[in-house]
Amino acid sequence: MTRKTVTPFVILIAMLLPSPVAAEINGRTFRDYCAAAERMSRGERQDQRGEIRAVACLQYLQGFRLAWIIQQLMAEKHGVRPFHICFPKELEGQDISDQMIDIIVKYMSDNPTEGHMSIDVIVMRAFGEYYPCEG
């Protein structure tokens, strides 16, 4: 196999493997994963490790967003106020992966003392600041 055929193959395998348990990854590590995704989105070449990290960041953020949007819809359906994070309606159906990556990288740069926290806490805090619920 040539290098050109190996890279897509590695990305496909990484996408099919279960992502690491969120509790096992702290904010510093997740920032590094998302920084790799940020570099990749700018067209910078990544080694195999960087590609896998970038995919892990994207997997987590896309899964989080989808789950949170479902939670928002359920809350609205039952007349309950959404909790903490409200993705704007105008972003529904759009790929905001790059924006989400930028939010995480910036949040971790602005809050380096939170690097020991789990990615669940980091993502909730970062998106809560960027996409707060009104009222």
TrEMBL record:
It comes from the Bacteria. Keywords: Signal. Pfam families: Rap1a (PF18602). Residues 1-23 form the signal peptide. Residues 32-133 form the Rap1a immunity protein domain. This is Rap1a/Tai family immunity protein. InterPro entries: Rap1a (IPR041238).
